[in-house]
Design brief:
The protein is of the alpha+beta class and 344 residues long. The protein has helices at 2-31, 83-95, 104-116, 179-182, 235-243, 259-267, 325-328, 335-338; strands at 53-58, 63-69, 72-75, 79-80, 97-101, 119-125, 128-138, 145-151, 154-155, 160-163, 186-188, 195-202, 210-216, 219-224, 248-249, 252-253, 272-278, 283-292, 306-315, 319-324.
């Protein structure tokens, strides 16, 4: 019996030695010279409330600095940043996790890819640099993202594959560097009681133009653009319309539009002009222009002259932007509609 136990003990020792060898071999094959330094696998910043600035730069010399300013963020110290984009990158920074190292066999190729195409991310709390890492492309299965961490100016010896547990996809698209992509797309943002009046000038149908006044205490006035006052109108519709100006966003900036095209648009007459005046007598003006159709056909098989879904708008601070009828039609109701009369 004792002899049998000794044999079993010897077998157990041999198996343990084999297991240790293969674990060591696998680690060396994947981690290379990284050793046991686990600091190079910690990408997340758990306390995102402490983050005050995020710097992003890509290999095409594009960069963006996202900075906290009280209860909002700015991009490149010039414009308010999109809240949804800031929330997304902070959530990513908080939840990102190391999945596994890049194998030793693939390491050189991945490092080469990161050197040629990646986004450098620096995360700060005040003046303190919390994290620096390089964000690369997705893995072949699209369920991971190649990243390389840097600590005290020293890069990790091998890239890592990272992910967010429970999220099926890659993360590189969340670390973008375009200023226009980060800029907030808000045009109007007014509390209801801060609105003094909204003027809708309809140049295609001048008789449909008007000014709606918010007098406070649920009291409104409606008058024609030439001063004609209306004793009866649908106050509920007027109130609803003014309420829509609490938060109005546009679809997109148009940074690649040529100057010739811009000049051509602005040379035409806007078909509508919105002028919102607040209680401090400050006005915000938005001019709406029809967008030429790009080959769309109507139900009768005829090519439409104008795009039925989108149009251009000009704002002094934003320039020419792309907007949608779906968003702006409720903001520019016709006078006939407010008077419950057939439109002219």
């Amino acid at each position: 019996m004792k002899k049998q136990n000794i044999i079993l003990l010897v077998i157990a020792v041999i198996l343990s030695a084999i297991a240790i060898y293969f674990i060591k071999f696998h680690k060396e094959n994947t981690m290379g010279d990284c050793g046991d330094d686990e600091s190079f696998s910690v990408f997340a910043v758990s306390d995102t409330a402490s983050i005050t600035r995020i710097f992003l730069a890509d290999k095409q010399n594009n960069s963006a600095t996202i900075e906290r300013k009280g209860d909002y963020w700015t991009v490149n110290e010039k414009f308010r940043a999109r809240k949804d984009a800031v929330d997304m990158i902070l959530k990513t920074i908080k939840r990102i996790e190391f999945k596994n190292p890049v194998s030793k066999a693939a390491r050189e190729n991945v490092i080469r890819l990161l050197s040629g195409r990646s986004t450098k991310v620096e995360i700060y709390a005040g003046k303190k640099l919390l994290k620096t890492y390089y964000v690369g492309d997705a893995t072949k299965d699209q369920y991971g993202t190649y990243m390389l961490l840097e600590i005290d100016g020293q890069k990790a010896c091998t890239p890592a594959i990272v992910h967010i547990p429970g999220f099926a996809g890659y993360l590189s698209s969340r670390f973008f560097t375009g200023e226009f992509e980060w800029r907030d797309k808000n045009i109007f943002s007014y509390n209801f009681n801060d609105i003094r009046s909204v003027k809708i000038q309809d140049n295609e149908h001048p008789k449909e133009s008007y000014i709606a006044f918010n007098n406070g205490n649920n009291n409104f006035d409606l008058q024609g653009i030439n001063g004609e006052k209306f004793t009866w109108f649908d106050t509920i519709e007027v109130k609803t319309m003014l309420g829509y100006y609490k938060k109005v966003n546009f679809e997109n900036f148009l940074p690649n539009m040529s100057q010739q095209t811009k000049d051509s648009i602005l040379a035409t007459s806007p078909f509508k002009i919105i002028t919102l005046t607040d209680n401090k007598n400050k006005s915000s003006i938005l001019k709406l222009y029809r967008k030429q159709n790009d080959g769309l056909i109507d139900f009768d098989g005829n090519e439409m002259e104008f795009d039925p879904d989108r149009l251009y708008a000009y704002h002094e601070e934003l320039g020419i932007i792309l907007i949608q009828y779906y968003v702006f039609d409720p903001l520019t109701l016709s006078l006939s509609y407010l008077l419950n009369k057939p439109e002219v």
